[in-house]
Amino acid sequence: MPRYGLRTRLLAGTILVAASAVAATAWLSVQRATTSIAQHENVVQDAYPLVYESMVDYAATHTDWSGAGPFVDGIAQELAVRVVVTPVGGTPIESSPASAGDRPGAEPSVAIDPLTVDNALAGTQFPDGIDPKVASPFQLTPQEHSDLEVLVEKESDCLKGHGLDPTIAELADGRPYLRLPRSSAPQSCRSVLTEGGGYVGFEDSPWVTPTGTEQAALNQLAVSVKGCVQGVAVKLALTGAGDVTNLADPADNPRDRACLLNARRLQLRPYVAPAAFMEAVPLGHAGGQAAVGLSSADTTRIAGVATLVVLLTVGVAMLLANRVIRPVRALTEATRRMRAGDGTARATTGSRWEIAELTAAFNEMAEHVARTDRQRTEMVNDISHELRTPLSTIKGWLIAANDGVADLDAELVSSLLEETQLLQHLVDDLRDLALADAGQLRLEPVELDLGELLRHIAAAGGGRAEVAAPPELRVVADPMRLRQAVGNLIANAERHTPPEGRITLRAYQSGSGVLVEVADTGPGIAEADLPSVFDRFWRADKSRNRRTGGSGLGLAIVRQLVEAHGGEVSVSSTLGAGTTFTIRLPAAKDPA
Q1: Which residues contact 515 (CB under 8 A, 6 or more apart)?
Q2: CA nearest 565: which of 485, 494, 450, 496?
Q3: Which distant-in-sequence residues (6+ apart) come within 8 Å of 128 by Cβ?
Q4: Containing H/E element for 261?
Q5: Most exposed of 176, 240, 243, 561 (fewest Cβ within 10 Å)?
Q6: Residues 6+ apart with CB under 8 A from 58
Q7: Cα separation of 324 and 319, whole Å?
Q8: Sequence-ordered alpha helix ranges (H) in 207-247
Q9: Chain-centre distance of CA 492, in angstroms?
Q10: Using omega within 30 degrees of 0 as the cis cutoff, is the peptide bond preceding 531 cis?
Q11: Among candidates 503, 444, 449, 477, which has minimal Cα distance to 584?
Q12: Structural contact between residues 554 and 491, judged by C-beta atoms closer than 8 angstroms
C-alpha cells in the first residue's frame, strides 16, 4: 500500500486549496480595489481632455452626429473609458460595452462646440475658441491652391539661398504657408510674395492677399458685421494664421471684436455638427476612496470565515473520499480477478454518481469480453466442422483411388471438384465477412434501375422467382454486391421452398427509401429463432448438413452488404406459411 492513500492526499490537497483560496481572495480583493480606484483617477485626469479634443475635432469636420457611433466607440476603446455624447435635442450616442458600474454622470458634462472650444480643457490655443479645422467657406479651389503653392515654393527657395531653412505647411482651408518668423526673412525675399501690399505665406503675417474664394467668404462676413459695427469702417482681411481681422479698427474695440466673432460663428455654423454634451467615465468606475484597507474587526471576520470554510472542506473531503475509495477498491479487485482468468468477475457498487457509471462500464466490458470469447470459440468450432466434412470426403476418395479400391474416373473427379467448389465458396464467404468486419468491404455505387437488376438476378437463379417492380425505380448501390445480397436470399428461399411452392421478388418505394422483399411459401421459421437468423453458421435445423442447409454464412453476408449500403435487412415468418426477408435501401435523390 502507498504511504499516502487517496483519502490523505485528497484531504491535504483540499485543505491547502481552501486555505489558499480564502487568503488569496482577501488579499487580491484589497489590492484590486486599491489599484482599480487609483487607475480610475488617473484615467479621469489623462483621458478626459483627450476625449474632449477628439469629439471637438469630429464636430469640426462633420455637419451632424449621425455617423459618430463607430468614432465614439473607437475613442472609448482606445482610452478605456465609456463615452456618452448627447446632441442638443437629439438621441444620446453611447459607446460599448456598458455595464452597471459604468454610469454616466460620475464626471461633469461638458459642451462640445468647435466654434466655442474650451482651450484650457483641450490644451489648445485657438484664437476666439474657434477650431481652425472649420474652414469650409474659405476652402480653396484646386487652381487657387496650385497658384499659392508656386508662390510659397518661390519664397522658400529664396530663403534657402540666404541660409535659412523654412518649412512649408498648410492651413485647414488648403492655403500653404511658410513656418518661419516673418521678421527674420530678408526684405528681398518678402518682396517676392508681395501682392497688393499684403504678404502671402508667413504664419505670423498680419494679413495676406486673399484668393477669390477667400474674398467671397470675407465679403459675406462683412455684410453680417456691418449690421453690428456702428460708426466704424469694415475692412476684413485674413492673417497668415488663417484668422479674420478688421484692418479698419486698429484699436480692436471689444464690442466690435465680439460683433465680428459672432458673425464668424454664424457664418461657420452650417459647416459643423450641432452643439452636444459629452460625458466620459472609466470602465467599471463606481467612485470610492483612493485606498482600501482592512481593520482588525475585518481581519478577525475573515479569519473566522476561513476557519469555517476549512472545517466544512475537511468534512466534505472525508465523506467524498470514503464514497470514492470503496467502489474503486471493488473495481480493482474485479480487475485483478479478470486478469487472473476469471471471466465471471464483476464489480458492484451502491453509489449513484460517476463511480456507478464507471462500474457499469466495467461490467459491460466484462460481458462483452466474455461474449466475444464465446463467439470466437463457437466460430472456430463451426469453421472446423464446416471444413472437416468436405476435406474428409476428398481425402477418403483420394486414398481409395491411390490404393486402387476406386477408379479415378470422370464421375469421381466431378464429385471431388464439387467438394472443392464447396470449400472455395466457404472460404469466399469467410473472406467477405472478414472484410466487412474490418471496414474494408469496397463498394462502387452507381445509380441503377432496381427493377431491371432484380429481373436479371431472378433469371440467373433459374427463373423460379417471380419479379414485381415498378419501372424506373432507381437506387444508388454497387450492382455486384447488391446482386450478391439478393442472390443469397433467393438461394436461401429455393432451398426451403418445395417445388410446388412460390418465390416472389418485389420492390417498391416506401417513404424516403426503397424496399426489396424476397418471400417464399416454405415451412417458415419459429418466432424464437428469428433473432438468430443473421448469425454466422446458424441453421434452424441443426441436423441439416451443408449440402441441404448451406454454409450458414449467406444471411450474415446479406446483413453486412446491406448495412454497407446504408440500409437494413429484416425478416418476418409464420410457421407453415412462409418467410419474407425485407431489404431497405436509400432511394436515389431527385436531380431536381
Answers
A1: 506, 507, 508, 509, 582, 583, 584, 585
A2: 485
A3: 243, 261, 264
A4: helix 254-268
A5: 243
A6: 68, 71, 273
A7: 9
A8: 212-226
A9: 53
A10: no
A11: 477
A12: yes
Q: DSSP of 348-381, one letter per residue?
A: -----SHHHHHHHHHHHHHHHHHHHHHHHHHHHH
Q: Is 481 exposed, middle or buried (0-12, 13-18, 19+ CB in 10 A)?
A: buried
Cell digits of residue 45: 485626469
pLDDT tens series, the chain, 592 aa: 445 555 666 677 677 777 767 776 776 567 666 666 666 666 566 777 888 888 888 888 888 888 888 888 888 888 878 888 888 888 888 887 554 444 444 445 788 888 888 888 877 878 778 887 887 787 788 888 888 888 888 888 888 887 787 788 777 777 787 777 666 667 666 544 444 334 456 666 667 778 888 788 788 877 777 767 665 667 777 776 677 777 765 546 677 777 878 888 888 888 888 888 888 776 654 443 334 455 566 667 677 777 777 787 777 777 767 767 777 788 888 888 888 877 778 887 766 666 777 788 888 888 888 877 776 776 666 666 666 767 877 888 888 888 888 777 887 788 778 778 767 766 776 777 667 666 667 788 899 998 898 888 888 777 788 989 888 888 998 888 888 888 888 888 888 888 888 999 999 988 888 999 999 998 998 888 888 888 777 666 554 454 444 567 778 888 888 888 889 999 999 888 899 999 999 887 655 4
Task: Please name the residue that has the C-alpha cell 451443408.
Answer: 546
C-alpha cell at 157: 527657395
Q: From CA 8, how far away is CA 19, in angstroms rounded? A: 17
How far CA 263 is from CA of 171, 222, 247, 252, in Å, comes to 21, 9, 16, 16
Which DSSP letter does residue 197 get? T
Nearest to 42 by CA among 81, 72, 68: 81
Closest CA to 128 of 275, 273, 249, 259: 259
**Residue 323 amino acid letter:** R
